[in-house]
Amino acid sequence: MKRIFKGPLIWIVVAVVGVLIAMQFLISSGGGDEISASQMQEYITSGEVKEITFVDGDQVIKATLDDSVDREGGREVTTKWLTGTQAGIEREAQEQAADKKIEKVTVEVSRPGLLSSFIFSFLPIILLVVLFLWLMNSMQGGGGRGVMQFAKSKAKLISKDMPKTTFADVAGCDEAIEELGEIKEFLQEPARFQAVGAKIPKGVLLYGAPGTGKTLLARAVAGEAGVPFYSISGSDFVEMFVGVGASRVRDLFEQAKENAPAIVFIDEIDAVGRHRGTGMGGGHDEREQTLNQLLVEMDGFDVRGGVILIAATNRPDVLDPALLRPGRFDRQIQVDAPDLAGREQILQVHSKGKPLASDVKLISVARRTPGFSGADLANVLNEAALLTARNNLKQITNETLDEAIDRVIAGPQRRTRLMSEKEKLITAYHEGGHALVAAALPGNDPVHKVTILPRGRALGYTMVLPDSDKYSQPRSQMLDQLAYMLGGRAAEELVFHDPTTGAGNDIEKATAVARAMVTQYGMTERLGAIKLGDSGSEPFLGRDIGHARNYSEEVAGIVDEETKKLLTTAHQEAFDILDENRDVLDSLVLELLDKETLDKEQIATVFIPLRRRSERPAWTGSPDRRPSELAPVEIPQAIRDRAAANGYPYANGTNGSKPEEGPGAVVTPPGPDGDIHGDPVLGGDSPVPPTPGSSGPT
Fold first, then answer.
1. CB–CB of 308/264 below 8 Å?
2. Rounded to an integer, what distance in angstroms lies between the CA atom of residue 244 and that of residue 639?
3. Are strands 229-233 and 104-109 parallel, antiparallel or unpaired?
4. Which residue in 350, 415, 447, 621 has the fewest CB atoms around it within 10 Å?
5. Nearest-10 Cα torsion for 190, 193, 195, 196
6. Widest distance between CA atoms in the chain
7. What 3-state DSSP class applies to 50?
8. What is the mean pLDDT of residues 382-403?
9. What's CA 235's distance to the chain center, in Å?
10. Which pLDDT does position 197 carry in this prediction?
11. How many C-beta atoms lie closer than 10 Å to residue 340's C-beta?
């Protein structure tokens, strides 16, 4: 709409309205000399009026005086009558006309002026035209685009005046930075690559979980490239009219080719690049035409270089295969959640400009945030800064950062929720059961915090975090996690003899882990190493419809039995551990009721007398596959030193569990008890760690 007001149309409308107003005044100004009503009546009574006209509606009397009347203002006079006087003046005029003293008496109805006639006649049409233009402008997403530019590209050209993001502002994804940095180098020094016959990739696809920095990487390329950079969202191509998206794709690439070398960035490309001919309805004409045009522009018959396409998506599995083939997206870069070193680098980037206390160590914050994406870490530091300002502090402390992490994981603390003493006691035993079972089993990660303060949707929670990043889990650890997840339910049964609804989320997650062990990972002896079910064949049918079951009803019954067996065994194991350590559980509950929140060191003090379970016996899935008695090869010291320099010391065990006695690991043959641990062993000086977000707040 701003474009309309800046153009000549508004001045033409103002000029026309001005002319009409002037004409209205000129026409109305020629009505004669105005006199009083009493003087008009005297003229009529004395017979000095030649012609008279009554204008109904305007309450005006117009008269032409006789030639014998000599007055300075002329013989044309007008007056306005007051309400109730019209009848007397009109009767007097009719009598004078009957006596032939007034030649002509007429009565007129007032007619609207030229301006009012124009307004009432053309204003509705003008309003309809303006409304139509506004609707067309709104359908295009605004931006001051005219109707004739409806099919033009809506890409934004990144100018030099916009705030720059560089690779120095990106951390935690070194491989992606290296790959994209190569594109920048090719644009700046193409001769170095062409000398060895290298061709720059035509397309680069960035894919990964939300919040890992895909769009931030694209902004960094825009800041570093030094060439025209066009940015557009995948949804900007799709309109209600078929063919508009394809036209916009053509216009976008025409602009980019005219300014080549150039970079085009399409965010959320899955909005337009989905697999053709899929879905419940069989496809989408507008999106498929847009995709066809995009395929042609990237690598079609008319091949002109100089345009590099960078795209980002969270769903690479739904993209059309023709879009992903070499020659279009030659390079596909996965942007994962950062590891420990990456999280520390991200925290360093986002901590710039934030006053940190001298005792704050970002590496400690990175260790407490495994699995966090770059967006999550940025949110942690921002929440810490907000809490610092709210409490009128000058620096961000460890306590503020700890609260910020809790807020990001579980939500803000619900200080207004008042719990009865009975509910608080039940919550303390529930969370204490989680923490104690986690600490008693060797495959769990360390317990970092236990609290009975309500936060988010939870009445309390136990935070169990690994000391280092993990990318796979052995079966024994998953069994320990099942017992840890059901520790809260077992504590309620042991102490109060009546479980509550607080374990609902624990049971849900434990069931999901147990079913995955049976159907995905082949971790049961009865079914063996077999994948049951197909969860990725039809991503377009929805989460539930797309999960095809490729096994019989008999096998489905066995799956349910094995899942129940795993859960029942874990439940009983958690119950037995709590029964053996009832004194430690009661001590932990008393500490929770007193302090409400316990940290890692306080928990370790309570768990000094804890009776821990030993390692589980070896499991191969069959009595015929006996494990080797030979230990794994000893890791060379050079590799140990290199790993330690990168923050992953082998001294802490190859799987992040308790320290090993020596090189390799001792393998115990399968025992008669199957998955159950051996006899409990009295704990040493330090507690053995428990599990993270797998159970989550309860």
1. yes
2. 58
3. unpaired
4. 415
5. -160
6. 144
7. strand
8. 93
9. 15
10. 86
11. 19
d(CA 343, CA 335): 13
The region that residue 618 occupies, defined by phi over 0 for left and psi between -120 and 50 for alpha, beta otherwise, is beta
> Rounded to whole angstroms, how far apart are CA atoms 598 and 424?
15
Contacts of 327 (CB under 8 A, 6+ apart): 202, 298, 299
Q: What is the pLDDT of residue 696?
A: 41
Of 2-6, 424-428, 565-569, 615-619, which gets the smallest average pLDDT? 2-6
| Phi-psi domain of 243 (left: phi exceeds 0; alpha: psi -120 through 50; beta: other) | left
CA distance linking residue 249 with residue 276, whole number of Å:
17
Rounded distance, CA 149 to CA 363, Å? 53
Alpha-carbon dihedral sign for residues 495, 498, 500, 504: positive
| 3-state secondary structure at position 306 | coil
Give per-residue pLDDT as tens, 164-214. Answer: 788 888 888 888 888 888 888 888 788 888 889 888 888 899 999 898 888
CA distance 503 to 499: 8
SS3 state at 311: strand
Q: Per residue in 577-599, pLDDT tens?
A: 999 999 999 999 999 999 999 99
State phi, psi for 480 to the nearest 5 degrees.
-65, -35
Q: Name the H helices within 99-213.
A: 114-139, 174-188, 190-194
Angle at 147 between CA 146 and CA 153, to 5 degrees: 70
| pLDDT bracket for residue 603 (50, 70, 90) | very high
Give the tens place of pLDDT for each residue, 111-146.
666 556 666 677 778 778 777 777 766 655 544 444
Partners of 233 in beta bridges: 267
How far apart (Å, rounded) are the C-alpha atoms in residues 51 and 150?
64
205 touches 329 (CB < 8 A):
yes
Q: What is the side-by-side strand order in the sheet with 331-334?
A: 156-157, 229-233, 262-267, 307-313, 203-207, 331-334
CB 236 within 8 A of CB 145: no
Which tokens belong to 460?
């309390």
68, 69, 72, 78 alpha-carbon torsion, rounded to 10°: -130
Percent of the chain with pLDDT over 70: 74
Query: Which H/E stretch holds residue 388?
Result: helix 374-390
464 contacts 497 by C-beta, under 8 angstroms: no
Nearest by Cα to 506 from 549, 570, 591: 570
487, 388 contact by CB (below 8 A)? no
| Cβ-based neighbours of 280, under 8 Å, separated by 6 or more | 540, 541
Q: Are 256 and 153 spatial neighbours (Cβ–Cβ below 8 Å)?
A: no
- List all residues 6 or more positions away from 630 whose beta carbon is below 8 Å from its beta carbon: none
Q: What is the pLDDT of residue 674?
A: 45
Catalytic residue, candidates 239, 288, 383, 431: 431
Q: What is the pTM (predicted TM-score) of this model?
A: 0.69
Active site residue 431: yes
pLDDT at 583: 95
**Cα 453 to Cα 51, 419, 561, distances in angstroms:** 98, 10, 37
DSSP E strands in 411-480: the ranges are: 447-451, 461-464
Mean pLDDT of 414-419: 76
Residue 103 has pLDDT above 90, yes or no: no
- 463 closest CA partner among 444, 482, 480: 444
C-alpha closest to that of 464 among 503, 438, 488, 489: 438
What's the distance, Cα to Cα, between the start and end of the chain in Å?
Answer: 53
Nearest Cα residue to 592 out of 407, 424, 409, 447: 424
